[in-house]
Amino acid sequence: MAGITGKDAVLSNYAVALEAPKGRSLTQDALRRLVANKAALVSIFILLAIILIAYIGPFFLPWEYDKIDWSSIRKPPDFEKGHYFGTDQNGRDLLARTLQGTQMSLLVAGVATGVSVIIGVVYGAIAGYFGGRLDAVMMRFVDIMYALPYILFVIILVVIFGRSPVLLFVGIGCLEWLTMARIVRGQTLSLKQREFVEAARAGGAGPFAIIFRHIVPNLTGPVVIYATLTIPEIIITESFLSYLGLGVQEPQTSLGTLISFGAPVAEAMPWMLITPAIFLVAMLLCFSYLGDGLRDALDPKDR
Amino acid sequence: MDNRPDILRIENLGKTFSIGAALFSRPLTLTALQDISFTIRQGETLGIVGESGCGKSTLGRCILQLLTPDSGRVLWMGEDIASLPKEEMRKRRRDLQIIFQDPLASLNPRMTVGEIIADPLRTLMPELDAVARRAKVLKTMEAVGLLPEMINRYPHEFSGGQAQRIGIARALITDPKLIVCDEPVSALDVSIQAQILNLLADLKDEFGLTLIFISHNLSVVRHVSDRILVLYLGRMVELAEGDDLYEAPKHPYTRALLTAVPIPDPIRARQRTIDGLEGEIPSPINPPSGCTFRTRCRFAIGLCAEERPPLENTGHGLVACHRWKELELQPGA
């Protein structure tokens, strides 16, 4: 880019050395608003604490989640033996199992949400941007998928992926993207009318460059909010499936499985229900509050 | 002026939109543009004026192939770009750029100013590396009066006038030959409008640009344009040199538009005959027969409803009116 005038050279050097002050991006603005929201902030801390405890806690416990203590079966909390939350019918330490169950619930929720976000965003953005007949066909397919019974698919998936909970939830993520695709398509329909998309076309950008450089980044708000609200939904789905015996397989466990074992014996051995229930409820509430906080922080109307 | 070569030639351009297409209903046809033909010489500024919905912006977008015209040809340096394949058209986009009306809406809120201005370079000049791109961005920012420190800021941190400078920088960065300015100042404060107009004039001289200046504001158009094209309901009404058009408008519609321009002098304003337009623009879905302006024209006669007036050469430009010769004899009519 050397020009005739010396100005180009000066500017080239300047371009390398330039340290222009950073602007405040919309994301930074949103984060500041999120931090100002007390409920959301507390939720973030509790969630972080739960995640840390779930993953690091087991290393400090005297018992493993699948280790049977033959001397204490169906026992209430016993600090001397290290069963801080008691044991289950098979003599396994309940705290260790709850932590492992929390890990499993977080893992499947994260995997399924991730898969559904990726599929939903790509599918919805393509349908919305191209519009017309392609949009009609793609969205009718979504309608058909909605109409088919969810649980039927899940049972088929269990047959296919039975022994691998993570794969099972990749499969569930492949079913969860429908709503995300609708939300993203709707947003894309309005975004593609904006002048900056036309400016990008005048700048020679192709359809996929426009979708991924200009439209998808502007979808952050609704996608993040919806994803945050999908996580608890999947945790509940997992609990429900585990309750039916379709989810995680023994000796591994999940919060739903623990609750399903604890519920029938809640009167005789309340600790078996209370411990996993506290973790589950805390996580669900925190994700909901975080989702609400993110919606307030990212909502473009408040900008 | 006349010895400069034609850079763009529009021939019989037409564009229709079909609206309300549903499964069981026949779509309505909206004629946005019909039979538009004109040429632009290199270095000229052509103003396009008309009321809302007359097809000004559609025309600008058809020239840039952001909308595909239904009929007619767009000859850019002698080559019909309306029939070019997309890949070929993309190469021509370096030469043809656009500035938008709403400066903030035309900037991607998630990108920094530097990224926005550099965006056309990624596709149109892929040979440049990151440092060369950045140098070019800084050079262009300087040309439009933006400080280099602003390069990492985001659009929402700017005022309307500054945002429009960013939009101009993005249009300039590929070294274009023609820029379509689609109401570039209508969304700005009056004090800022002057700045942006002067900037455009300076840039035009500095880079040898040809401008198509679309606006509904006649004073603004007069300030910048060499020639002016008046559109009504998607048809050409009058095309003339700026001064001729303002001093001696031929078409009744142009006269009506000119008398609607406010005069900043109460005495003169009271003296002039008010020849305002009555009624609304007819629907472009179902335009009047013959001359489309006849429903609002004080001088309409039977012929106007029967026959569409052809574009006639007046010696100073083109006009589409059956009675322009008679009307010329009664000044102030």
Order of secondary-structure elements of chain A: HHHHHHHHHHHH
CATH fold-level topology of chain B = Rossmann fold
Rg of chain B to the nearest angstrom?
21 Å
Q: What share of the residues of chain A does DSSP label as strand, in percent?
A: under 5%
Overall pLDDT confidence of chain B: 86
In total, the number of strands of chain B is 12
Q: SS-based structural class of chain A?
A: mainly alpha
| CATH topology term of chain A | MetI-like fold
Profile the largest sheet of chain A. Answer: none
Order of strands, widest sheet of chain B = 6-7-8-3-9-10-12-11
Number of discrete domains of chain B:
1
Give the class of chain B from helix and strand content and strand pairing: alpha/beta
Describe this protein's structure:
The complex is a heterodimer of chains A (303) and B (333). Chain A is mainly alpha-helical. Chain A has a single domain (36-60, 80-302), classed as MetI-like (MetI-like fold, Orthogonal Bundle). Chain A is built from 12 helices and no strands. Chain A has helices spanning 6-17, 26-36, 38-56, 94-130, 132-147, 150-161, 165-191, 195-202, 207-215, 220-243, 255-262, 271-298. The longest helix of chain A is centred in the middle third of the chain and has 37 residues, at 94-130. Chain B is an alpha/beta fold. Chain B contains 12 helices and 12 strands. Chain B has helices spanning 56-63, 86-92, 113-124, 130-143, 160-172, 190-207, 218-224, 242-247, 252-259, 266-271, 302-306, 324-328; strands at 6-19, 28-41, 45-49, 71-76, 79-80, 96-99, 178-182, 210-215, 227-232, 235-241, 312-313, 317-319. Chain B has an 8-stranded mixed β-sheet, with helices on both faces. In chain B, strands 2-1-4-5 form a 4-stranded antiparallel β-sheet, with helices on one face. In chain B, helix 6 links the parallel strand 7 (178-182) and strand 8 (210-215). In chain B, helix 3 (113-124) crosses helix 4, helix 4 packs across helix 5 (160-172) and helix 5 (160-172) runs parallel beside helix 6. The mean pLDDT of chain B is 86. The interface between A and B is large, with 36 and 49 residues.
